[in-house]
Structure formats: C-alpha cells, structure tokens
Amino acid sequence: MTAGVHAADTLARATAQQPRARILLAPVPVSPTKPLTPTHLKYLLSLDMLHRATATFADVTFVYHHTAFAGSRQVAGFWEYLDRCHPGAAHEALSEEAIGELYTAYNRAGPAPEADLLPVVRRAEAGWTHPVTARLLDIWEGHYRLLGMADPGLGRTGPEPASEAAVLDLLVSRNLCIDARGLRAPAYLDATAAGLPLRAVTSPDGQANYLLYLLRQLVPLLDSHDLVVLAHDVDLRTDYQTLAHVFTALGATVVRFEVPRVPIDGVVRSTRFGGWQGHTLGAFAGALVDEFGPEAFQLGLRLYLVAGLGRTARSSFSLGHLRRWMRRAVRLLDESGGPLPPDGSEHGTAGRFLAARAGRRRYADPYLLATTLLGRDPAVPAGELLRVVMGSLPDRGAPTDMER
User: Fold this and answer.
1) Quick check: pTM over 0.85?
2) H or E stretch including 62?
C-alpha cells in the first residue's frame, strides 16, 4: 500500500467515528425548454456522480426541480410564446429536438411584454405545466433511465418554498437586499461588501427571476445542513458568487461546484441560439447502446464527459472520442470480474475511501472519482467505486435485457 493511500485510510478511520455531515446539494436546474446537449449531460452526470459518491459518507439533500422557476421570464415567456404562436400544437408527437427548435425560434422572436406574461406566470406559480414542457419532461425521464441516473422522476416534487415576501423581508433585515419595488424599480441582492455588483431578483414591475425562486427554495433549508454545495455552469458564476455571499451571511457554510460548457465544433454557445443539431442525447445514444450495450454506454458517457473532457472542457464534443471511451468502459466492466456485492454492502469500503479523498472539500469530486476509477492502483476499491458511479450493476454472468 502506498504512503498516500495509507494516510487516506487513517483519515478515513478517524472520519468514520464522526457523525455524518448533512449536505445540501443545490444545483441550478436545467430549464425544461430544450434538448439535452453535451453541456447539459456533462452537468447532469457530474451532479449524479457527486450525489451518489457523497451519499456514501454523508446525508445528502438533493434539491433539484426542473420547473423550480417556471414562473420566471425564461420559462413562462416560452410558454406564452407557444400559446400565442403555436396554439393547439400536437405536443404528444413532438421530439425534444422539435421542442428545441421552437425554443430557438422563441429566442429569435424576443419576449412578450411583462403584462402579457402575467397570466402564464400566475398559472405556473399555481403548479401548472405547459403541455410541451410536460412532453419534454417525459422524454427526459426516459433519458434519465437510459443513463442510469438517480431520481428518474426528475425532481417533480420537493419542499414547499418560502413566500417571496418572507425571503425578501429576511434579506432586507440582514442588509442583503435593496427592495426598490415601491419606487417602480427592482429588488436587488446586495453583495457589494464582497466586491460583487448589485443583482436584480425582480423586474421593476415585481416579476421574479430565477434567483428569487431559488432563494425561496433554499433559504428555509440552510439551518438544517452543515454544508451547502451550490452547483452551476460557468456562465452563472457571478450570480452564484452572489448567492454564496448571501447564504454565508445567513450563517451557512457554502462551496461552489462549477461545470464548464462543452464546445460543439469549436464553439461554445447557449442552446437557445441553436448549433446543437445532431449532438443531442436522442441523436447519438441509440446506435451506441445497440453497439456497446446499456452498461457500457452509461459508464462510457460518464467517463468521457467527466474525466475525458476534464474540468475545463476545452476540447469539442466528439463522437469518435466517445466511441473510444465506450470501448474503455467495456474493458473496465469486464475487469470488474464476477458479480459485485449486493447493493449497499460496498458502501462501507467505498464510503471510507471517498470520505478520505474528499478531505476539506467535504464532498466527493466527480472528476477525481472518475480519474481514480481509471487508475490501476490495487489499493483502490475499483469494483465498489464502479457501483457508486453507476448506481448498481447486474451480475456480470447474467444476460442483460438486450442480450435476452
């Protein structure tokens, strides 16, 4: 055993004597308006691995609701556009790519006036979901199952959020918010003490944006957790630095987990501008599952997006590279040998190993998990880590559904 592994094992034994930490994992949701592209998949699979691995040594509350900010302009504006420009669309027949084309067209057209959005916002806040988004969530549920991700229900239920008034009153009382709505101006988060600009959380007319919806969802949970992990993509860095400042001022211990966007043909762009055609999960998954099988597809896609593209994702998404990672996944699965231990029995070994590797970070980093799994260190519990990465693996001696 190497000195590094021995030291990690010593730390793990000491950590095992301590109570399990209570960790709030709070990623920004992918809004249900678009197809799942390599950027979304890198983000979602990184979160899935972070969640699974951290849960082996801590109690994790994963707050993720795809329609958490359905009343915001980004989502409600799309819904208003659909009802105005495509009334009566046969939503049951739409593919996610077709929905993505509608979303791109909406962004080209520009949003409607806020007064026109208000009826849609009120319905969304009462729990209504547009049929096109409901169709997309059904498609995503199938994707989640194909990918072996936790919570194939996509977080459709969750804790009741705090009221808008209660959250804004609390923030104003802590000098974290400037509420100028009475003057027909926005309410702003105030993190200027941390060198950050004021950030509006409402429009001058009082319409909330996604940040206020997230604050309503998360503020009530802060006191009951030891650590808050805020996950987001690079484009939202300043917003999440502001959120981290606000939550810290409210007494929480906060870290941020940032995931880069993945270039396609050398270009990084938001889904709303297009350029994703032919690179959605629905476009490439079928042929790869047929060729390599569902287990290798799940593992290979995780390893490519998380480890292969790395922390910075400077290289473009490549189906050729993905196929090479599929072959690597096949070898890893074959090397795992016979049947792995039953679900749950490996969590003691994997949990101690992952807790030691987490160190001061206090959560399991998916990049380190993936690269550790790819190593050849005999002290690494590779079989157990495989189960953590993928949730559960069947007996390798039994035929899969596709083989039957």
Assistant:
1) yes
2) strand 59-62
